[in-house]
Structures are given as structure tokens and as C-alpha cells.
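Table S2 (text version). Query chain:
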Amino acid sequence: MTDDLAWKNALAVLAMAQQDLDALGADYDDAELDLLGPAHTSAMLMMATTPAPDWPAYVRKLEMLIADEIIEVCGPKFEPALAALVADARRLGGR
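Corresponding C-alpha cell output:
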């Protein structure tokens, strides 16, 4: 799979997981969040570890990760995603 196709797939998976969370609305109970939250976290990690095809995608990736506060949620599970971010920056920067 090309980086561009993998990136688009990761964004689609994340969009579906986000729609599921958004559908809960403001009056959700913990059981609903317990059911849908892990899928969203997995989708965020998938997006984070998928190579960004270009600089605009890389910037979008960083913005989404910061906005979602995924680093605080995942803790040590996020280390592979941080390594992927560094690899993206090096690859896209040409070194």
C-alpha cells in the first residue's frame, strides 16, 4: 500500500471512530464511552503510526494528536507513534 493510500485509509478509520463518539452526544454514560473509546484510541494510534505522505499531512497529524491529547491518554503505548513522527519528519525533510 502506498503512503498516500495508507494515510487516506487511516484518516477514514479515524473519521468513523470519531463519528461514533460524536453520536453519543453530551448525555452519554460511561458504559457507552467504555465501548467506543478504545476504538477511537486505536484509530488515533493507527493514524499516528501511518506515514504521512507530505508535509501538510504531517502537520495535520500533529494538530490532530495535540487536539485529542492522545499522548496523555495512551502514555507509554504512544512511544511507537512518537518514533513514527520522528521518522516522518526525517523522511519528509530528506534525511
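Notes on Table S2: Helices lie at 3-24, 30-49, 55-68, 70-74, 79-92. Residues 3-92 form one domain.
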